[in-house]
Design a protein that fits this description.
- The protein is mostly beta strands.
- The protein is built from 1 helix and 8 strands.
- The chain has one helix at residues 2-19; strands spanning 22-25, 33-36, 41-48, 55-60, 66-75, 87-95, 99-108, 120-128.
- The strands form 2 sheets. A 4-stranded mixed β-sheet has the order 1-3-6-5, with no helix packed on it. A 4-stranded mixed β-sheet has the order 2-8-7-4, with no helix packed on it.
- The protein is globular and about 45 Å long.
- The protein starts with a helix and ends with a strand.
């Protein structure tokens, strides 16, 4: 009986995750309309250099439509001992329910005041169906 329950649970999990897509976005996708389905994973990867103090800071205008799963920074591959290299900031979201959300990212030093007019910015308009 336990084997059947485990197999059934594995089947249900596989069916639910098979429908979900992973949508990869970069700076090149800024300003675009993005369509996603409930359950989809949205990964935003933006180049930057954390060693300068700058980082991408993300904001959403509707936190009920999508939810943040994770965020982090991955430095580029470099020769041993090399410092000060760039990398990629990653922001991972999951589409939770139907609706529209704008995800905006600003590249600035968090201890300095955000200058929305001059700081580097990307923006994604996501519609979850």
């Amino acid at each position: 009986m336990k084997k059947i329950t485990l197999l059934l649970a594995a089947f249900v999990f596989a069916c639910n995750t098979a429908k979900a897509e992973v949508i990869d976005l970069s700076e090149a996708d800024s300003g675009k309309q993005i369509k996603a389905a409930t359950g989809d994973i949205i990964r935003i990867n933006l180049k930057g250099n954390a060693t300068t103090g700058y980082s991408w800071q993300f904001q959403m205008d509707d936190i009920g439509t999508v939810g943040k799963i994770a965020e982090g920074y991955v430095p580029d591959e470099t020769p041993k001992g090399m410092v000060g290299v760039g990398g990629t900031f990653e922001y991972v979201l999951k589409a939770i329910k139907a609706g529209k959300v704008t995800v905006t990212a600003y590249y600035f030093r968090p201890w300095e005041k955000l200058d929305k007019e001059n700081d580097k910015k990307t923006e994604y308009f996501i519609t979850v169906e």
